Here is the input.
Amino acid sequence: MDRQSQIEFILDHFENPRNHGKLDGADVVSDGGNPGCGDIVTIYLKVDDDDRVRQVTFEGQGCTISQAAASLVTEMVAGQPLDAVLDLSYDAIIDELGREVVMSRPRCATLALGTVKAAVASYKKGEHTAKTEV
Ligand code: FES
Here is the structure.
């Protein structure tokens, strides 16, 4: 995708967020924050018996990139094994969003993925909440 298409892709996720909202009965809820700006993403996760992401939603407040990335991350991790979520690289989300566009804003681009990883790590430890900062 060229730069303009990547910007439109990000704006579409921001304006029409996928999997947005609270998830009742979530197995784990994870709050992620960027202390530099105060932006936040909350991830709700339900996990299947075979340790796959059954359902994932998010809420948040923040810049266009952080919230678009959260929408994109929910699409990327839905149905995935938990270990695959932990293995997902920060480069993968940056590439999906458009490296050229988000390169100068790595914290914004990776806030949601870090929050999802924290959710999975907590779930594996038998915890139901997580808190992380990027
Ligand atoms: Fe705060 Fe982007 S400016 S996460």
Remarks:
- The CA atoms of residues 14 and 67 lie 6 Å apart.
- The chain has one domain: 3-124.
- Strands lie at 28-34, 39-47, 53-61, 129-133.
